[in-house]
User: Which sequence fits this backbone?
């Protein structure tokens, strides 16, 4: 595709609900990243995939957060039993570079609001 | 742990003015440094990427410099325009061998250029 796309763009959840956020990276991009951006803050790293392999999940804030990329393209970030502190913009990025230091291309993000 | 700080947090200037945004980082072992632009409700757009071996990069009216020894980078915008209004984020790729894919972001500088 022309760029990284994310869906939904906005999600409102009641506390305790499960949510699933989708990322479609640029076609052929090997590496995929998820970031969390709280209001007024810079993005913070959550997890990194190289193809279908999740090589780093050290940034996931709790075991309620789970990410997958089963076929090495589309990725889903799932948050179980959402809490108010999960409210943030979740950004996905991809790069053709094998996890190294090339420019990361970002999607528009999903704004999650937990009531 | 790498920490990235951006000063000022917000800046308002009249159209046509030249301006400088500042970024500092605590760990000088960086692989490269990137400047991004973020518009409201949108993802990040990469503006400039400076490799650790370089001192500056230029693109149009933008010039970014890097001084690893002092842990500083600056983004210079010449002849600012209202369309430059956005949040500007700097981010560092850590030079740590296996995990240098991780970007550490500052909180950003909110720039407003007034017509």
Assistant:
């Amino acid at each position: 595709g022309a760029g990284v796309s994310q869906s939904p763009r906005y999600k409102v959840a009641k506390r305790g609900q499960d949510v699933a956020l989708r990322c479609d990276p640029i076609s052929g991009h090997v590496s995929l990243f998820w970031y969390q951006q709280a209001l007024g803050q810079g993005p913070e790293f959550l997890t990194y995939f190289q193809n279908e392999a999740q090589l780093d999940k050290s940034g996931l804030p709790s075991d309620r957060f789970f990410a997958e990329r089963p076929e090495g393209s589309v990725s889903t970030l799932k948050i179980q039993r959402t809490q108010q502190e999960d409210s943030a913009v979740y950004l996905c990025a991809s790069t053709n570079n094998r996890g190294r230091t090339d420019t990361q291309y970002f999607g528009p993000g999903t704004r999650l609001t937990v009531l | 742990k790498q920490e990235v700080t951006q000063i000022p947090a917000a800046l308002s200037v009249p159209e046509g003015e030249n301006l400088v945004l500042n970024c500092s980082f605590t760990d000088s072992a960086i692989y490269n440094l990137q400047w991004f632009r973020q518009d409201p409700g949108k993802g990040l757009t990469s503006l400039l990427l400076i490799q650790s071996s370089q001192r500056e990069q230029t693109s149009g009216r933008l010039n970014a410099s890097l001084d690893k020894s002092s842990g500083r980078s600056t983004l210079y915008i010449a002849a600012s325009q209202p369309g430059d209004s956005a949040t500007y984020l700097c981010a560092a790729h850590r030079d740590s061998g296996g995990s240098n894919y991780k970007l550490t972001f500052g909180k950003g500088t909110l720039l407003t250029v007034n017509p």
Notes: The mean pLDDT of chain B is 91. Chain B has no helices and eleven strands.
